[in-house]
């Protein structure tokens, strides 16, 4: 068929499937599916979660994170945790310094240097009181 035949088959406002899905049928299906899912969840949700967590942890986590509203996920990602703002600033500064060396030096070497230098600087000398 050519495009002209296809585009003029029905008059404007005329349905190509007059006996198709009745209006509201899709929303009724969705409402019923949600109601059925809620009933199943209410009856079996906790047991199902425990089973999936034990047998397939990756699916368990994927499902949990998929149902968390995005605004909550964002607030969790931006949360500073138990650290106060001064501690977070120190951590960010430390991470920035470590990243600055990443191209030149292996990260484990950087951590070894940090640990060695800090231990040397705060170590007590024999006979010294602190």
Largest sheet: none
Number of helices: 6
Helix-strand makeup class: mainly alpha
Which word captures the global form?
elongated
User: What number is the mean pLDDT?
Assistant: 78
The Rg value, from CA coordinates, equals: 31 Å
Q: How many runs of DSSP E, i.e. beta strands?
A: 0
Portion in helices: 55-70%
- Reading the helices and strands in chain order gives HHHHHH
Could you give a short description of this structure?
The protein has 130 residues and is mainly α. It has helices at residues 3-7, 25-55, 57-67, 70-78, 85-101, 107-122.
Can you characterise this structure?
The protein is mostly helical. The protein contains 6 helices and no strands.
Secondary-structure map with pairings?
Layout: H1 3-7, H2 25-55, H3 57-67, H4 70-78, H5 85-101, H6 107-122
Helix pairs in contact: 2-3
List its traits.
130 residues, mainly alpha, 0% strand
């Amino acid at each position: 068929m050519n495009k002209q035949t296809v585009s003029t088959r029905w008059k404007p406002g005329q349905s190509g499937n007059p006996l198709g899905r009745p209006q509201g049928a899709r929303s009724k299906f969705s409402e019923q599916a949600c109601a059925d899912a809620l009933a199943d969840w209410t009856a079996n949700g906790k047991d199902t979660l425990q089973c999936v967590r034990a047998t397939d942890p990756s699916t368990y986590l994927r499902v949990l994170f998929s149902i968390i509203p995005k605004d909550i996920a964002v607030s969790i990602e931006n949360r500073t945790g138990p650290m106060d703002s001064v501690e977070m600033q120190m951590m960010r500064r430390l991470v920035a310094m470590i990243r600055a060396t990443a191209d030149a030096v292996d990260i484990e070497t950087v951590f070894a240097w940090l640990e060695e230098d800090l231990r040397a600087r705060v170590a007590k000398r024999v006979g010294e009181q602190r």
